[in-house]
Write the structure tokens for this entry.
Amino acid sequence: MKVNRVQIDDSFWGGRIRRMCESIIPYQYEVLNDQVPGIPQSHAVENFRIAAGLSEGEYQGMLFQDSDVGKWIEAASYSLRIREDRELEEKIDGLVQILKKAQKEDGYLNSYYTSARPGERLTNIAHGHEMYCAGHLAEAAVAYAQATGKTELLDIVEDCISYFMSKIGPEPEKLHIYPGHPELELALYKLYQYTKKEKYLKFMEYLLLERGKQPSFLLEDPGFGEQYHDKWFGLEYHQAHLPILEQREAKGHAVRAMYLYAGLADLAYETKDPAIISVLEDLWKDVTERKMYITGAVGSDEHGEGFGAPYDLPNDRGYGETCASIGLIFWARRMLRLKADSRYGDVMELALYNGALSGMAPDGKTYFYVNPLMVIPSQADSRYDLRHVKTERVPWFGCACCPPNAARLIASLPDYVCDYDCGEKELTVHLYICGKITLDKNIWFEASGDYIGSGKAEYIYRGESVEMTLRMRLPGWSGKTGMKLNGSLFRPDTENGYAIISRKWSDGDKLEVVFDLRPRFIYSNPRAAANAGRAAVKKGPVVYCLEEADNGGDLNAVVVEDFCSAGDAGRQDGQQEQAVYLRGYREKAGSQEGKLYSDQNPEKVEGVFCAVPYHMWGNRGKGEMLVWMRKK
Amino acid sequence: MKVNRVQIDDSFWGGRIRRMCESIIPYQYEVLNDQVPGIPQSHAVENFRIAAGLSEGEYQGMLFQDSDVGKWIEAASYSLRIREDRELEEKIDGLVQILKKAQKEDGYLNSYYTSARPGERLTNIAHGHEMYCAGHLAEAAVAYAQATGKTELLDIVEDCISYFMSKIGPEPEKLHIYPGHPELELALYKLYQYTKKEKYLKFMEYLLLERGKQPSFLLEDPGFGEQYHDKWFGLEYHQAHLPILEQREAKGHAVRAMYLYAGLADLAYETKDPAIISVLEDLWKDVTERKMYITGAVGSDEHGEGFGAPYDLPNDRGYGETCASIGLIFWARRMLRLKADSRYGDVMELALYNGALSGMAPDGKTYFYVNPLMVIPSQADSRYDLRHVKTERVPWFGCACCPPNAARLIASLPDYVCDYDCGEKELTVHLYICGKITLDKNIWFEASGDYIGSGKAEYIYRGESVEMTLRMRLPGWSGKTGMKLNGSLFRPDTENGYAIISRKWSDGDKLEVVFDLRPRFIYSNPRAAANAGRAAVKKGPVVYCLEEADNGGDLNAVVVEDFCSAGDAGRQDGQQEQAVYLRGYREKAGSQEGKLYSDQNPEKVEGVFCAVPYHMWGNRGKGEMLVWMRKK
């Protein structure tokens, strides 16, 4: 078993990762095998069994159901890097055998087109998801090979990719197309990194740079046809409205966009092409400075699951698909590889602790697909334009992209913590997540502390003395971040929001980092109309919200003024450990003689209100939730 | 020509009614005859010509296109009560001849089912609109007979109604159904009042009291079938979910509801049945205290054009169909006949000056179908869930129910001003609209003043001396309403928000009424989340709004504090005659280092802002509009 460079042992993440490996990933396997009653049946494994001739029956589920199996194998593989698990490994091996049998002689592997649409390969590029599914299998194959050294799945996947490469490419006789839903691009880069085979890099580059050339092949694509006149499903939906290097604004389907930009960042990392880097930089600014919720959620329009106009960030009916926040993390991670800049690290951390984490209950068995910032159940349960908003977490989805996506993210969290440049002897820490960071044989850091809880982190160097540079991200949310080396305060140089500590490290050297973890009010750019007159509460990277369970309903009648202590709130019971308390008042409903409109301001009643981490919302029954609170 | 009891000569309404009669109603005739190029073609008259065998071709338009002709004849008839117009009368007569030819031998008259769906009469009660169209023709026939004494259209309509009465009713052999879209009910009452034929009252009573009996016949109705599983088009949509006398909450399609409740109020007026009155009272409270926008708009959900949950009143994507506000006026007018209570008069006035009037530009040639209270064009033009919101008035609609509905309302405005009980010698004034109120031969009041502009009204009695009671509505918006009789202040008795002045009136007696017309901030019940932290501005019955044309964009970055004068605003040019000025500040976009989120409050810039009447919005090019302003 290959082990991660980073072994996480963190008060916040440790338990989550353990539950992920021990119970959620096995649970999702049962779901994918239709062994969990009372929830939407996945049929994902059964589809492969049918394609493999191992089962009778008909394909069921979304046409991209295969990808759930790919994501699950990938997640399970990451789990195997964290802890040995024979049973889990056997499950993967079992799946690999099914995939092998489902694969056609020419390498093609896709259960939907094999059993439900024979003879229709590559006829619906816009929505067919064939390359998308192949991409997820490729990511799975690389992860499994990395974790176990086993390459049987890799062989399957390479044959499958070869099929696509035989049909698609710059050569005149081939199809000049690219996937409707990006994903294969970044998977090809993983394949290239693992196998070192240049052809994957070339194919990835082709798929990326072909994108958006006009006139678009999509206009002739049978799968695209009918929906073309709906502007929400036009070329922008597929990020195919402009040649990729001319795209400077994030448009269309948010998950597609995030995966595409992530792939593009891989290409930029490989080529260092300034034209690509400039596109990425503009897209980054457009997303994070005009189109991202404070939780790191992206995609504000349910229809087309897409980006809205700049500053169009409605709190009640935004989409904020869990997968889109995960995609934003993928993209940010790759931007960090391009350049250690805290702007990227801050957004990665933000989306991780909020928009992505909110998609899954702590026990990992119930989920949100959509992550709004305000929920009023009486409205969400009755309005048509809020029908995508669930007021309670659900055990699974008909379109189940999010749960296994969350699983592979959490299980691969070690990969997000830091980068280590072995040649330059430079360790760059992006996320303050505790555990052991192994740099080389016999040299490592032991990271400890309670970043989210108390705002402290401690890095103790272990091993032989060595000249090395540490780059530590200075989170944008921490006004002042203090650093001590072996007990002495010092002011490190900084670059792009990272502190730089270059020195000879000896066994036992201790770097302490202290963050300003006081809760803060965050205000929105006034152009974001939905947040006008309101503030959000953040403590460190964690966004808070008011919930009805703590504060009663009608949360928009609450006006907060400043922070107070749990003691002020008369809450010494410690029930809400992570809670933040706020002093303010509540406008009394019905105090205007029961009128709907009155020239009298409603009566105010002073009160203390309790805010909880946004990622924890929706676990205590149905009720209102509100991130952007009215601020006095 | 029969003349109205009330002849309007009012600074606010006079010009509007004149334009309506002289130009808008003739313009709409051209539209209905497809003589106006460059707008959605109506085909409404052509449909009747085809059904009559006078034209070749196929039916076009909504299946209830006939009703546009009915509404137009009704509006034109009201115009004829206001001013003689031979040409207009000839147009109506011409239409009547076409209708006569389009009518079948058995009395049936409906151009859609005659030419596009022969043999399918009464097979789609849910959405077929046959009785709805017949109802509009009946209203037209009564109005035309009242205006001209001509009864040819009345004969046609009575034959048509007889057809429906031969098929539908309590007798075992008949269909036990009621219209999907209420309208015939209130039309039958007009028919009964005009013809004194009891059978129309009985049929109206049957249609009303049959409504909502369970199990609903609609579940078996072929027209209802497919959409039944969409809860927005279920039984509630048709107000058919409960027996009518058990309905205590307004649900479903808002226009349907308003027309239904109006018909029910007619029945209550006739029968004085306390069970019906109690239902009406509960529905009135539910609508006006929980589900009505401050403009008198109703229907907050675009899907199903219906009522939302209590207090669910989103400002950007509410529906507020012009026809629904007009329907609310119809209902309120009938509630006032049941009982002179200023609650009804206030709402009637509110919807008239705001939600209904906003549906039509001052020149009457461009319209809004949907009347939101906040428009941000960049969002409205790009979001799917705002696609019903037009950011500019349009010249006509494919579904053109609203323009002729506005026409018949404005042209019949004299009927809304007052009630006169000839026996009791009691004049009840609901609306302060100036002109001449004729009570009897040779006795009348001359009403003058400038209610909306200066808050004064003067009623001079003319004619022989007579004992008479005047009931004058005391508008809820006027904190104190002063009254002078022949120059002397006095405090009249009041009842249900009406001042009562019983005395012997002699020629030249003068009643002066002075209202508190100062602009006010209006606050919402805190349960209406969309208005939290905000105030609306009202001056008298008129709701105001901010428009980009006066204040620049990003209106949600504006915070208003108090009122000021045009002089304070440096606006002595008088360009905005009806404007109200407000002092406050604007949060500067981009003042937080261009960030989307910041722990710094945005910079504030003091300013004076200009609010204009809501009914005038959208006439100066595309731009933002906002009713509920942030209030310091």
About this structure: Chain A touches chain B through 62 residues (CB under 8 Å). The two ends of chain A are 56 Å apart (CA to CA). The mean pLDDT of chain A is 95.
